[in-house]
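Example 393, ligand protoporphyrin IX containing FE.
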Amino acid sequence: MQQGSSQERWLAQLAWCKQMREQSPVYYDEQNHLWNLFRYENVVSTLADPATFSSRSMAPAQDSEESFLSSWLKGDITKMDPPQHRHFRGLVSQAFTPRVVEQMAPRIHEITSTLLDEVAAKGEMDLVSDLSAPLPIIVIAELLGVPPEDRNRFKDWSNTLIASTSATPADKARLKEVLPIFKEMFAYLQNFCQARREQPRNDLISHLTKAQFEGRMLDNDEILAFVTTLLVAGNITTTILLGNAIVCLNEHPDATAAIRADPSLLPSAIEEILRYRPPFTVTMRTTTRQVTIQGVTIPANQMVITWLLSANHDERQFPEPERFDIRRHPNRHQAFGHGIHFCIGAPLARLEARIALALLFERFPSLKIQPGAELEAYESPFINGVKNLPVSW
Ligand code: HEM
């Protein structure tokens, strides 16, 4: 069982979402000027309608201090609307294909094994710092083609980036402190893109330099922006998914026993973990026009929060949503979003989770969260996961 405050917070958030789905499925938070959508059907139809619900204005206001970061954010696919999004996604999808990802499987297996070798004899580890945090960063570095000697620098950049993008406005001072680090990373990636453009290899950056869509190719700045987005969108989410998997399985020993008896249940168990405890609880959009949902009228230019967590627990879509059912079918959860911005990294996240969990089951069959462990949850209500996870076997 997940202990302490993180579990209480999680249960309180679930209860609140349920109450909102029933009593106020379209809720205006006056204090923060935010509209919130809680029902599955409204979340899905909002994400399916980018003409009415834009991703663009989620970018922070540009001020001179942050202009460097803003120039990156302008090339961030998650903040684009059609037609720009269609072109950009068309280009990056050619390089970041499920086939490219599937080819990584043997390396993901090896990387995971090496990380587990380092802790095997101890009989315990912090699952986050020893496995679920390093794994996706090493995988993405290899996928991009970052040479082994630069991987530690790359890891530090990636961690800094993640820490600063989840920073609150109050942390702006910190943002300024880390700006030189970003500049160093961007300069490195610029040179790296150029080198691969001149001498392509079999890696993601080389594929990105060659991608063509409707007569257009990506320039180095766009590749840099995409790679930065991959680091932000891909690493912390996969780290959290693995932690959430262990939390869910620890809470449900019957499910763990069933997977152990029949490992072919693992893929559907991962989908249920994503439904039950989605790493991102929300996505955000801005209305481009006045729109009426469930009889409530939302004016134009309003921020709308679509609650993925609430959609995933909506009893209108999922029978007995609070039951953790690793055989649930159909399971059209919203953990990866929906529509044109559907997570481009979903095949990679699923593959990493499948390989890492299978290896954990195989090598440490008695793995459990340490009794009495104090688990620290992310402060943001929009991120659903723990920062530490002491386990033993
Ligand atoms: C988009 C979740 C892993 C890269 C998204 C969105 C969600 C999401 C909810 C949609 C955002 C929106 O509609 O505004 C997750 C979760 C993951 C995960 C829960 C892991 C469990 C990854 C990985 C990568 C990645 C491993 C890449 C290495 C992206 C990118 C987008 C995206 C580039 C933007 C796609 C677009 O705007 O067209 N992700 N993600 N994600 N994700 Fe993931």
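Summary: The chain is about 55% helix and 10% strand.
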